[in-house]
Amino acid sequence: MRLTPPCPSIDFSADDIYGKTIKLSDYKGKKVLLAFFRDAACPFCNFRVYELTQKYKQWQDHSFEIIAVFSSPADEVRRYVAKHPRPFRMISDTELNIYNQYGVEHSAKALFKALLFNFPRIVKGMLTGGYPQPNPNVKLVPADFLINPMGKVEALWYGRDTSDHMPMTQVENFIKN
Hints:
6 helices, 21% strand
C-alpha cells in the first residue's frame, strides 16, 4: 500500500548496521530523508549514497538527517556501502519490514527499464563501490520520503525504475523551506 502525503510517518525501531538502535521518532524536531535502497552491492544504490554523502555536510547545517535502509544483511552494507565513511545512519532490513510499512514495491519491469536506460549510472555506481551480486530482492524499487520536524511525510518518491530516486533539487527545496 503506497502512502499519500501529507500523512503521518510510520515509526519503527531497528538496529543500524553497527548494532545501535535507531527509532524514527527520535528524529522529531528535524527534517529527515528516509531513503530505501535495493541492496548494498547495487551500483545505482552506491552512486546515490555517494551523492548523498557529498551533500550531507551542507544539509546538516539545516537540522537535516538521512536514514538509509537496505535489504542486504548488515555485514554486506558495511562491506559495500560503508567501506567509505558515511555520515548518516544505515539500516539493514533483510525481512523487508520497514519496506513493507512504507509501501516500497517490487517490479521486474522497473529492473529491466533501469538496466536498459541507465547504463552510465551503473558505471558510476561501480566506480563508487557497487558491483552487482546475487540478491533475492533485486526487483525492489527505490523510494524516498521527506519527513518534516513534526513527523509527517511531506513528500515522497516511489521510483519508476530500480535506479530512480527523488531529484536532489526536491530534497534541497525541502531542506531550505
